Amino acid sequence: MRMILYSTSGSIPKQNQTRYTFGVNEKLLDARSEPRQLPGWLKPEDLNYYAKEFARTGFRGGVNWYRAMDMFWEATPFLIGRKLLQPTLFIAGADDPFIAQVAREGVDNLERSVPNLAKKVELPGVGHQTEQESPAEVSRLLIEFLRQFDSAAPAPKAPAK
Fold first, then answer.
1. Domain count, the chain
2. Is residue 98 part of a domain?
3. pLDDT higher than 90, residue 158
4. pLDDT, tens digit, 9 for 90 and up, residues 36-75
5. What is the pTM of this model?
């Protein structure tokens, strides 16, 4: 967990970030870096909690989602080319290695596939664990987005002059 979370962080040197492609004989951790120190957002007590939970429940469930990705595509051909029509907020880390290595084109073209995209935000210095690396900003953006659907929500205060 330490290597996985560290290597997907946006606040570490780029050469320590994970790779999302592997050689035939490589394992998941071969593409991850061992941290000399944890990034500021990742506390030892968080790692201990994750380790206890994965020791208790196993890691198979999380990994199986990735193993089944091809099956998801095969089971949903009717979604190819469809647009997401719901009002949408996209928040990601500007330094997420997954976006940089795998999903850049999709993120850059999001407005085409999500016509009701209210806002697209890429947070600088943030990697793959967006809500952990920048909790206050993610919360602020979510509340701002959700307020538009709540007629009882108080109007935002005008900025001070």
1. 1
2. yes
3. no
4. 999 999 999 999 999 999 999 988 888 888 889 889 989 9
5. 0.84
Q: Is residue 120 part of a domain?
A: yes
Copy the structure tokens of residue 12: 């570490």
Distance CA 160, CA 10 (A): 32
Task: Match 């990742």 to its residue by tokens.
Answer: 42
CA 126, CA 97: separation in Å to the nearest integer? 10
Q: Are 137 and 123 in contact (CB under 8 A)?
A: yes
- 97 located within any domain: yes
Collapsed DSSP state (helix, strand, coil) of residue 159:
coil
Task: Specify the 3-state DSSP secondary structure of 128.
Answer: coil
| Contact yes or no for 123/130 (Cβ under 8 A) | yes
Give the count of beta carbons closer than 10 Å to the beta carbon of residue 48.
11
- The Cα 95–Cα 130 span in angstroms is 10
Contact 45, 8 (CB under 8 A): no
Amino acid at 101: Q
User: For the chain, first and last CA: distance in Å?
Assistant: 46
Distance CA 116, CA 118 (A): 6
Beta-carbon contacts of 111 under 8 Å, excluding residues fewer than 6 positions away, are 117, 120
Range of the domain at 87: 2-42+81-147
Asked whether 93 and 103 are in contact (CB, 8 A), the reply is no
